Amino acid sequence: MNFGVLDIQGDVSEHISMLKMAINKMHIDGKVLSIKTREDLDKISGIIIPGGESTTLYNISKRKGIYDRIIELVNDGKLNVMGTCAGAILISKNTNDPKVIGMGLMDFDVYRNAYGRQYNSFETYIDIEGMNEKYHAIFIRAPKISRVGNNIKVLGTYNNDPVIITDGKNMAITFHPELSGNTKIHEFFIDKLRV
Ligand code: GLN
Q: Which of 27, 132, 177, 183 is the most buried (most CB within 10 A)?
């Protein structure tokens, strides 16, 4: 089973390292690929859309046909997706911002940069369902999840706002799990593909 990280912009190498570590820990036979083209998507079962700048990720992935192909593959049940920070904005249903159109892969809405500017970025420790230790969550110009649909499970919150959610296959996270040094969230994502 192979995994990919969308390689347009943002925290690509960090997610690749974390996925490799997670796969080793879980003794999974598979590769971690950098995804640069529409065709690359056919080689993988799970993709991470990293944090970065959602407007850039949107414009370039749309131009390369990657954006529409991800939607097709996820809707056909051939691909699971984990969106982190800018990636979460990209997979949402409604971004409340005409500069980034959400793929609508999970039923939730966001507001971009809702905690303020770069200066207002912060780190904290949060409880995540299924983990027995608090998770070091790093928020960098993070979006806020303003609505979740009925089929969405909230796995963790910060100040009562959902910050890590799943629909059972796909995941959206408003912080940066690739920067925590803790592979648990990556393992969690991989685990959803093993059933
Ligand atoms: N503020 C960025 C955006 O809206 C997201 C920030 C991030 O991914 N760290 O695209």
A: 177
In the structure, what pLDDT confidence band is assigned to residue 195 with cuts at 50, 70 and 90? low
Distance (Å, whole) CA 74 – CA 39 = 15
Q: For the chain, what are the domain ranges?
A: 3-193
Among residues 67, 44, 6, 18, which one has the least CA distance to residue 176?
A: 18
- The ligand 1 atom at the shortest distance from the C-alpha of residue 176 is 9
Output the pTM of the full model: 0.97
Residues facing 46 on adjacent strands: 3, 80
**Domain spanning 3-193, CATH architecture:** 3-Layer(aba) Sandwich (3.40)
The rounded Å distance from CA 53 to ligand 1 centre is 5
Crossing angle (nearest 10°) for helices 12-26 and 184-191: 70
C-alpha 28/C-alpha 176 separation (Å) is 23
- One-letter amino acid of 149: G
85 catalytic per annotation: yes
Counting atoms of ligand 1 from 1, which one is nearest the CA of 11? 8
Kindly state the average pLDDT of the residues 90-109. Answer: 98
